């Protein structure tokens, strides 16, 4: 039972790291889009910035934040379970 909880915690930790890496990639892409938007606002003739793409990135980022929060909550529950269930949920 404790072994299973530890395996679940390890899997959850790996999933959380994957989500964080994906979120970081989206943040970098969003930063690049913001830089391109600043260039566009400075009067460059060819805009590189697509509002639809930025909206997609913002929505994906919000979804990833929610997934990371949910994953962190699951990890906290697994840590409680692995610790012998003290202070468990009713």
TrEMBL record:
Top-level taxon in the UniProt lineage: Eukaryota
Keywords: Coiled coil
Coiled-coil residues: 2-36
Protein name (database record): KASH5 protein
This protein's encoding gene: Ccdc155
């Amino acid at each position: 039972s404790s072994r299973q909880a530890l395996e679940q915690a390890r899997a959850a930790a790996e999933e959380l790291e994957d989500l964080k890496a994906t979120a970081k990639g989206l943040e970098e892409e969003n930063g690049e889009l913001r830089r391109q938007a600043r260039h566009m606002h400075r009067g460059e003739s060819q805009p590189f910035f697509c509002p639809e793409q930025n909206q997609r990135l913002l929505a994906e980022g919000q979804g990833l934040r929610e997934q990371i929060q949910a994953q962190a909550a699951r990890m906290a529950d697994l840590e409680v379970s692995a610790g012998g269930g003290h202070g468990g949920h009713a």
